[in-house]
Amino acid sequence: MSTSVNQSEYEKVKSLVLTTISNISIGPTATNVAFMVFSGRAEVVFHLNTYIENKTSVMEAIGSQAHTGGSTFLGDAIKLATSDVFTETNGDRPDAENVVLLFTDGESSADEDVRSSIDELKSKAEVFVVTVTAEVDNSTVDFVASSPSLNHVFRIDAPETANIVRNVTTSETCATIPPVANTAD
């Protein structure tokens, strides 16, 4: 978690993610989940095919993540999702729609990296952004989210967010939960 996201906000993100995971079916022909963080550096915690039939392991891996603080590498996370997560080698299925749930405040240590790489990610996945702090860089958040941003950007504290996230992840999609950054940053 970046320093712009506090421990309480981080715990809200983990809670929403874990609740979401508990409500979906994980399997080779159901939803597959990948998880990334991008605080200090962008890294894939696990790929789409790591826990393909084990919801408990998915939840344990996410639940064990700790708030670490540090700079936010949103651009690197976007590049990594595009080049590493959404590949057939790592479990991307050509017959499944890809969804990214990005938890962030929109802050980034290198805005140019975000702007130069987001279009490629949007060509592979529908990007939903859940903002996690009171202070949000709305221009970055709106730019990163799929269009129209009104239908793709939500506040973590908004009452409807949990239902929206559940609906997004229970449709016939391959859900990826990358950058729990800036929120899991």
Write the layout of secondary structure elements.
Blueprint lengths: L6 H16 L12 E5 L1 E6 L8 H9 L10 H12 L11 E8 L6 H14 L1 E6 L6 H7 L8 E3 L5 H10 L2 E4 L9
Parallel strand pairs: 3-4, 3-6, 4-5
Antiparallel strand pairs: 1-2
Helix pairs in contact: 1-2, 3-4
The coarse overall form would be globular
* Helix-and-strand structural type: alpha/beta
Which strand order spans the largest sheet, edge to edge or round the barrel? Answer: 5-4-3-6
N-C termini distance: 3 Å
Total helical segments: 6
Query: Would you tell me the overall average pLDDT?
Result: 84
Query: In percent, how much strand structure appears in the residues?
Result: 15-25%
Count the E strands: 6
Question: What's the short story on this structure?
Answer:
The chain is of the alpha/beta class and 185 residues long. 37% of the residues lie in helices and 17% in strands.
Structural overview:
This protein has 185 residues and is an alpha/beta fold. The chain has a single domain, classed as von Willebrand factor, type A domain (Rossmann fold), CATH 3.40.50. Helices cover 37% and strands 17% of the residues. It is built from six helices and six strands, in the order αββααβαβαβαβ. The strands form two sheets. Strands 5-4-3-6 form a four-stranded parallel beta sheet, sandwiched between helices. Strands 1-2 form a two-stranded antiparallel sheet.
Descriptors for this entry?
185 residues, alpha/beta, Rossmann fold, two-stranded antiparallel sheet, 17% strand, disordered C terminus
